[in-house]
Specification:
This protein is an alpha+beta fold. The protein contains 3 helices and 20 strands. It has 2 domains: 100 residues, no CATH class; 286 residues, Lipocalin (Beta Barrel), CATH 2.40.128. The chain has an 18-stranded antiparallel β-sheet that branches. It is elongated.
Length: 394
């Protein structure tokens, strides 16, 4: 009996302890849940306060910006209404420029970044040809290749460049070589003034006398030839709304879709060619067909009408663009001391541009020919210019 009573009391004690433990566990769980709820409510109140502060700050900032815009517009409106003020004239010019020189945004776009830093590598050389029907003579010469490195800083279409020759590093003689070029390109017009002068060393490409090639003169040096030309031109782009000539040349625009345009204008060329007869012996003069009546020194002025066509072939919404431009120039040649004759000075141009993010890569190849056709002889000078550039917009 005693053992039974003890067992019952023990079991009752264990049951009481289990009930107390379960009750404490429930109380602890409720306390944790209450604390979690309080933390969540505090976090929600914090977020609400933060959002409220941000809204008040944004509202104040928008108010300040709007007041500044209203004040600016008020000042500009007063300045514009005053027709005698400088601001009015600037405003009128800006509105006229936007209307007359704007591009179609579906075909041409402007890069987002305004500035561009570009590294250039340029190579220039010229070919010279002389033909005489009386002696059946055909002489072709070439100059050395001039290499130049340049750096340019551009803002939109305005660019400032500096070039330095690197031929000294390649041990190439550059005495007497001078080149310069200034170009202004807008949506409607292309204006350019360039000067080229070379009285350096020449090499014979080929010499034909009476139809037979003289191999002993090929690649030999010649020091008695000078060529100088000053060119000025102004050309108009007819399809100026959808065609951007600067998309591949200066890369100030991006040609989004392929498009072409006729190009027409006027150009002026002043050329002078000089051949030093003293470098030839009497035997060489007779061999090459050069006598006292052979006109080697010439100076003339060309007044030409330009009319050609340019086409931009665009891929992937302007990421890669190739330009082909052919611009013949036909006009009147005024030689000094001689009769007036026909002038023909064609120009061919191929350019490519690659745009990816803020990087831009360009390649341009240009050939500009200057010809003088006389009664029995022809002289021509062709200048080749190859320009490779890599730049980054910022």
């Amino acid at each position: 009996m005693y053992f039974l009573r003890t067992s019952i009391l023990f079991l009752l004690g264990v049951a009481c302890e289990c009930c107390l433990f379960a009750q404490n566990e429930n109380n602890l769980r409720d306390d944790i849940e209450n604390r979690q709820e309080r933390i969540e409510r505090r976090f929600e109140r914090f977020q609400q306060r933060r959002d409220s502060i941000n809204e008040r700050l944004q509202s104040r900032r928008d108010t300040i910006i709007n007041l500044a815009k209203i004040k600016r517009d008020s000042i500009l409106q007063k300045a514009v209404q005053d027709t005698t003020s400088f601001h009015h004239k600037v405003y009128q010019f800006s509105q006229w420029y936007k209307e007359k020189f704007a591009y179609d945004p579906d075909f041409v776009s402007r890069p987002e970044k305004k500035f561009a830093l570009t590294l250039h590598n340029e190579a220039i050389f010229d070919l010279n040809a002389f033909q005489n029907e009386e002696y059946n003579t055909d002489i072709q010469m070439r100059s050395t290749v001039r290499y130049k490195l340049g750096l340019s800083l551009a803002y939109r279409s305005l660019s400032l460049s500096y070039y330095s020759t690197v031929n000294d590093l390649l041990d190439i003689d550059l005495d007497g070589v001078l080149t310069s070029n200034v170009t202004l390109s807008t949506s409607r017009f292309i204006a350019q003034v360039s000067y080229f002068s070379d009285d350096g060393v020449r090499f014979f490409n080929s010499v034909k006398i009476n139809g037979k090639k003289k191999k002993d003169l090929t690649s030999s040096r010649f020091n008695g030839y000078e060529f100088h030309v000053l060119n000025a031109q102004v050309d108009y782009i007819f399809n100026h709304r959808r065609y951007a000539h600067s998309a591949t040349h200066s890369r100030a625009r991006i040609q989004k879709r392929s498009q072409g345009s006729f190009i027409g204008g006027f150009s002026y060329n002043r050329q002078s060619t000089f051949v030093d007869r003293s470098v030839f012996s009497e035997e060489e003069k007779q061999f090459l067909g050069i006598d006292q009546n052979t006109k080697l020194n010439m100076r003339f002025h060309d007044f030409c009408v330009d009319f050609g066509y340019g086409y931009n072939l665009s891929f992937w919404n302007g990421i890669f663009t190739t330009n082909f431009t052919l611009l013949p120039r036909i006009g009147i040649k005024y030689p000094e001391g001689e009769h007036v004759r026909l002038a023909f000075d064609p120009t061919a141009d191929i350019a490519m541009a690659y745009n990816h993010n803020d990087w831009t890569i360009g390649l341009r190849m240009q050939a500009r020919a200057y010809t003088d056709l006389q009664e029995k002889q022809l002289m021509s000078n062709t200048v080749f210019d190859v320009l490779f550039s890599v730049g980054r917009r910022f």
